[in-house]
Amino acid sequence: xxxxxxxxxxxxxxxxxxxxxxxxxxxxxxxxxxxxxxxxxxxxxxxxxxxxxxxxxxxxxxxxxxxxxxxxxxxxxxxxxxxxxxxxxxxxxxxxxxxxxxxxxxxxxxxxxxxxxxxxxxxxxxxxxxxxxxxxxxxxxxxxxxxxxxxxxxxxxxxxxxxxxxxxxxxxxxxxxxxxxxxxxxxxxxxxxxxxxxxxxxxxxxxxxxxxxxxxxxxxxxxxxxxxxxxxxxxxxxxxxxxxxxxxxxxxxxxxxxxxxxxxxxxxxxxxxxxxxxxxxxxxxxxxxxxxxxxxxxxxxxxxxxxxxxxxxxxxxxxxxxxxxxxxxxxxxxxxxxxxxxxxxxxxxxxxxxxxxxxxxxxxxxxxxxxxxx
Length: 374
Known about the structure:
Blueprint: E1 4-10, H1 14-23, E2 29-34, E3 37-43, H2 47-52, E4 57-64, H3 66-75, H4 77-93, E5 99-103, H5 107-120, H6 131-144, E6 149-157, E7 160-167, E8 179-183, E9 187-196, E10 198-199, E11 206-207, E12 212-215, E13 217-220, E14 223-227, E15 231-247, E16 249-265, E17 268-269, E18 278-288, E19 293-308, H7 315-330, E20 335-347, E21 350-362, E22 364-368
Parallel strand pairs: 5-7
Antiparallel strand pairs: 1-3, 1-4, 2-3, 6-7, 8-12, 8-22, 9-11, 9-15, 10-12, 13-14, 15-21, 16-17, 16-19, 18-19, 20-21
């Protein structure tokens, strides 16, 4: 690659200058005349010839070719090193585990599983595992916890692992005193299971809270011939109304469980289209000099979404949001049989939506039998 230089020659006699350059067999490229100045591009090797012409005064404006590359590399060496280090770190960080979550309501089991995962090689700040290794860990966990774990699943999302554990239920023989099984809530019965007691209601009957479904008193015609501990389980359809509200415009910012490198020059961030709004985690490289102010930070990425709502198309979002509220109220994931938007209105610049849910629940509750002595 030929290296060339752009120079500005300061001289009033432009014609004389050009004649001298031609005489010295200097190749001239892109000649521009500007008042008393001449801007020309020459081969770098011809600069020495011009230096020997004592009458020519010049100033170097720019470089081209390999010389330009060398100068730019020298000028931005720190930046280029930071970018290279950033690319390497980005590749490494995208393959490192930053979060492990064990999903189970049993806190003791959650702690035990986390300890075993650590021993088996699934640990924070270690490299992401391949599918084969994940399956081996899953099999070992199930094998060593046959009496505790019914089922488990290992899923990876970016740099996060989620281990979902279903605890094995130990069925113990129930012992109780004399009692009835009554309804916990107002509901319509969908299923009755009984191993002891007298069933006094049937499927699809509507019952109020506290109403007897399986009686501990055993009747023969109108007389009570025995009293026992009623045992069983009753499922019922329970009804809920949930009201949710939406602004006409909503901005959501969510962490996306990914990590990125953000390069900052003189307190200005180099754009990264993947980041959205960013949260700085910690500084990796910092260089403050008279020429540069360079920072390289590891940050957690988030995504920003702006959503517009209107009363005609709100139903799907309203049902989804109402379902979340219902789950928070019940503290469990409900088995929803039916759902429907009942009514919609606008109040105080918000869309108000009332949603109906029919949920199948365990409505089993108990009531002690008090024997009356006459």
